[in-house]
Design goal:
The model has no long low-confidence stretch (mean pLDDT about 80). The chain has two domains: about 45 residues, no CATH class; about 110 residues, no CATH class. It contains two helices and twelve strands, in the order H-H-E-E-E-E-E-E-E-E-E-E-E-E. It has about 180 residues and is an alpha/beta fold.
Length: about 180
Amino acid sequence: MGFIFSGLFWGSILILIGASIIIKAVFKIDIPVVRIIFALIIIYLGLRLLFPNFRLGENQSNTIMFEKRRINTSGKNNEYNMVFGSGTIDLSDLDPDKNPGQVEVNTVFASSRIILNPEIPFLIRTNTFFADCTYPKGSAAVIGESVVRSPAFNSEDKALLIEVNVVFGSAKIIY
């Protein structure tokens, strides 16, 4: 919410309102600035609800937005987001003993590739909503949930839990 209370935000609002008044007086064109600003604030708040770590204008190493990029994991982040873009997330270096036990990958209106090491024990939970999630031995339903285990998975050993959420997009899991 810091962005909404910043000087940059309110300065931009005042400039847009002033420009709207000038355009209306000179060109007789009515631009609904207040409605547009209200809609942008609602979109911003929606993105903040979907992705709590989302900050407008900040370059985040764990978020791909409106671009195509590759993320090599370092084990510091346990949440990776892709929105309106495409990218590859390489989780093959993660070790369940040294890194957080759970990793979350969110793909919204985007295309993602998730690379895993088959020698590391992992359990993948996929949640799809009007989306496609494929992995080497099948694919998830358009709407639903599925569970995939690595060849090295053993319920008694420590394993990496990966949650993949795909909404109006596609995810391809490679191992």
